[in-house]
């Protein structure tokens, strides 16, 4: 979510007036009902619908089409693996498909109540089913397979088909556990540990089945703890997310988690988690955190299990987000082991030592690349700004200082690295663009029903006017996309990276519902908060960054090149569109993109590391498309072994690359003094850059600009 310094007073005022009006008119004469839990939920739904219909950037028309969106999204999340509900249940709920729009306007939860009742009954049946299935050994030699993509599955026609679907899925889970046990046993044997006892396939299958049984015991126990408030929140979020993926409701407890700020004392792994379709996914890696430094956990990974050190892992499939977060968080120095599923379907155990987030690593950092002419490098993890502290740090000022330090080293080119930068302060993106262009518009911001506001750089000074490369990838989002788009539209520099940036071109604001409800509802507070999409971004050329993101001028092979990830892959994203271009003057000394692109393509084609990246990316695409898994043990283990071998090949890519001549600036090293912790952090920063094949190619593109005109 982008943070905007100026509060939207107009929207807030309208929001408050409408909400107050809705509450007083809808509940006059119904005071007693309003003070009950049922009355509170009705009030909550009415208030949220008024807010969504009044203040959202692109309000939904409350009709049958809207009703179907909510219906489909809610059922998708209710039973994402299609293991509980039967087709007859779906047929029974079908009558609500076109009724939800009327129900939400009346504050009614009729569809939620009906679906909850059916699901509760089916859950009880499923509990008996999994125990019966796991009580007997599986036939591991039988030629059969199971489909893992929920989108390709259908709801079972009857209980017999449902039981068979459960049997295959539980057999798959047992095979996953067996693969882990066999891997652990093989590693122990390699170490020639005399205490290691070689277990038979029968023993391994029994042990694996026992682990799966415990996993599902835990899962069903958690499901039994789901409260009415949890169900209401899930339903309301299906309604909110039908407007767009970033509009959502925060119950009071979730809002408290959302409000956790980077204070320098945040203990944990430093990953932002989200719950979608019953799965806990990594939404973002906090720069400078334990996860960031460990390097294996990535945005988009699905966390399947969590283990505390060497303890038995706990499955978090179907777990509430707050409970999953509480398992992942922990004290500094303790170990958490995450079993994650990568986008290509491979499964990996990632050990992370929890730590305090190191603030220094969230800030801009620079280094000097030594070549025939020096090149400056700046890593910007986020567009940070301390809005509450007038003297606090902000990314624009920090980048300005880093550029100035690099200029003292007589740099003849500059690389600004925005890879994995999820955004932040809009104003800092505008100010930062002004470091590299003369005065002019940087981004257009549109509020629904109003003319776009043009945010521009008013300072004619250009801090650095030499060759410029901006590095991006598919996780560069929001403010990163604004800066990259401005540099590209002005033809000021070269955008280098994977196929496209994330494509998030919207702005959200958070409204505390307690602040807009009248005092007569104080006994029912807190109500939570609503995060609402209120604005949309447009480039100076008129095109939105929404959905399409920013396509780099020069494409480089990426491991996830063929795996779809981004705003366009979310449910119900706002569409791409365009408005009238702003008036701006392109950079007079434009880079020769055609020639630079041709030179880069030749180097990439001859680079064995990039060849391997392309090969592995194609394999990943094939694996992600082949969502059916064999349940014959020998076939399953062979496929698992190949997947691990491919992952290992990618991990060893850097070992074969030629290290760059890159170092920290002396002025920065002098500031570290005798602090060994900070010295190690600085050394690791440089060490990781030395064999970064993408940074090497970005440097070559800078060098090309010295010759290509």
TrEMBL record:
InterPro entries: ClpP/crotonase-like_dom_sf, PDZ, PDZ_sf, Peptidase_S41A, Tail-specific_protease, Tail_Prtase_C, TSP_N. Transmembrane segments: none annotated. Belongs to the peptidase S41A family. Keywords: Hydrolase, Protease, Serine protease. Residues 257-329 form the PDZ domain. PANTHER family: CARBOXYL-TERMINAL-PROCESSING PEPTIDASE 3, CHLOROPLASTIC (PTHR32060:SF22), TAIL-SPECIFIC PROTEASE (PTHR32060). SUPFAM superfamilies: ClpP/crotonase, PDZ domain-like. It comes from Adhaeribacter soli. This is Tail-specific protease. GO terms for cellular component: outer membrane-bounded periplasmic space. One of its GO terms (biological process) is proteolysis. One of its GO terms (molecular function) is endopeptidase activity. It comes from the Bacteria.
């Amino acid at each position: 979510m982008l943070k905007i310094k100026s509060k939207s007073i107009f929207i807030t005022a309208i929001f408050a007036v409408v909400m107050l009006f809705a509450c007083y008119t809808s509940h006059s004469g119904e005071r007693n009902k309003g003070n009950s839990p049922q009355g509170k939920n009705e009030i909550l739904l009415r208030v949220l619908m008024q807010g969504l219909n009044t203040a959202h950037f692109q309000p939904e028309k409350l009709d049958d089409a809207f009703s179907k969106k909510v219906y489909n999204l809610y059922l998708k999340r209710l039973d994402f693996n299609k293991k509980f509900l039967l087709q007859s249940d779906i047929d029974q709920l079908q009558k609500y498909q076109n009724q939800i729009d009327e129900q939400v306007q009346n504050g009614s939860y009729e569809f939620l109540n009906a679906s909850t009742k059916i699901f509760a009954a089916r859950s009880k049946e499923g509990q008996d089913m999994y125990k019966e299935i796991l009580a007997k050994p599986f036939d591991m030699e039988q030629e059969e397979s199971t489909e893992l993509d929920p989108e390709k599955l259908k709801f079972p026609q009857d209980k017999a088909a449902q039981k068979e679907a459960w049997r295959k899925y539980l057999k798959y889970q047992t095979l996953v556990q067996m693969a882990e046990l066999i891997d652990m046993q093989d590693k122990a044997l390699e170490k020639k540990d005399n205490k290691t006892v070689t277990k038979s396939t029968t023993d391994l299958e029994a042990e694996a089945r026992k682990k799966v049984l415990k996993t599902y015991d835990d899962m069903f126990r958690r499901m039994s703890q789901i409260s009415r408030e949890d169900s209401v929140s899930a339903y309301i979020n299906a309604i909110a997310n039908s407007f767009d993926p970033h509009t959502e409701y925060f119950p009071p407890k979730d809002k408290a988690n959302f409000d956790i700020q980077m204070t320098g004392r945040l203990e944990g792994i430093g990953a932002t988690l989200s719950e979608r379709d019953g799965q806990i996914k990594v939404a973002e890696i906090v720069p400078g955190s334990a996860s960031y430094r460990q390097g294996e956990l990535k945005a988009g990974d699905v966390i399947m299990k969590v283990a505390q050190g060497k303890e038995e892992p706990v499955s978090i499939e179907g777990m509430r987000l707050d409970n999953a977060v509480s398992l992942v968080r922990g004290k500094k120095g303790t170990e958490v082991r995450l079993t994650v599923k990568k986008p290509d379907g491979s499964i990996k155990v990632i050990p992370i030592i929890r730590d305090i987030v190191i603030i220094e690593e969230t800030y801009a950092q620079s280094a000097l690349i030594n070549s025939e002419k020096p090149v400056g490098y700046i890593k910007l993890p986020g567009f940070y700004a301390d809005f509450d502290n007038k003297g606090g740090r902000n990314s624009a000022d920090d980048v300005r200082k880093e550029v100035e330090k690099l200029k003292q080293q007589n740099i003849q080119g500059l690389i600004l690295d925005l890879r994995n930068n999820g955004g932040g302060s809009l104003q800092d993106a505008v100010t930062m663009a002004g470091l590299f262009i003369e005065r002019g518009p940087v981004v257009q911001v549109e509020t629904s029903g109003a003319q776009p506001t043009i945010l521009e750089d008013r300072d004619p000074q250009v801090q650095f006017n030499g060759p410029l490369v901006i590095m991006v990838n598919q996780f560069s989002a929001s403010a990163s996309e604004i800066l990259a788009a401005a540099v590209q539209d002005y033809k000021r520099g070269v955008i280098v990276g994977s196929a496209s940036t994330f494509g998030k071109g919207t702005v959200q604001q958070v409204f505390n519902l307690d602040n807009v409800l009248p005092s007569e509802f104080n006994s029912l507070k807190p109500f939570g908060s609503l995060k609402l999409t209120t604005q949309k971004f447009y480039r100076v050329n008129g095109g939105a960054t929404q959905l399409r993101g920013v396509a780099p001028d020069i494409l480089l092979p990426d491991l996830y090149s063929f795996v779809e990830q981004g705003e366009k892959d979310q449910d119900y994203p706002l569409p791409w569109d365009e408005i009238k271009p702003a008036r701006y003057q392109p950079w007079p000394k434009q880079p020769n993109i055609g020639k630079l692109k041709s030179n880069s393509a030749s180097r990439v084609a001859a680079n064995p590391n990039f060849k391997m990246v392309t090969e592995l990316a194609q394999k990943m695409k094939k694996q992600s498309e082949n969502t059916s898994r064999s349940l014959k043990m020998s076939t399953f283990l062979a496929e698992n072994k190949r997947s691990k071998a491919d992952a290992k090949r990618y991990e060893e890519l850097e070992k074969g690359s030629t290290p760059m001549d890159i170092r920290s600036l002396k002025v920065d090293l002098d500031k570290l003094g005798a602090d060994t912790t900070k010295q190690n952090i600085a050394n690791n920063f440089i060490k990781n850059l030395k064999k970064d094949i993408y940074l090497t190619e970005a440097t070559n593109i800078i060098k090309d600009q010295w010759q290509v005109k």
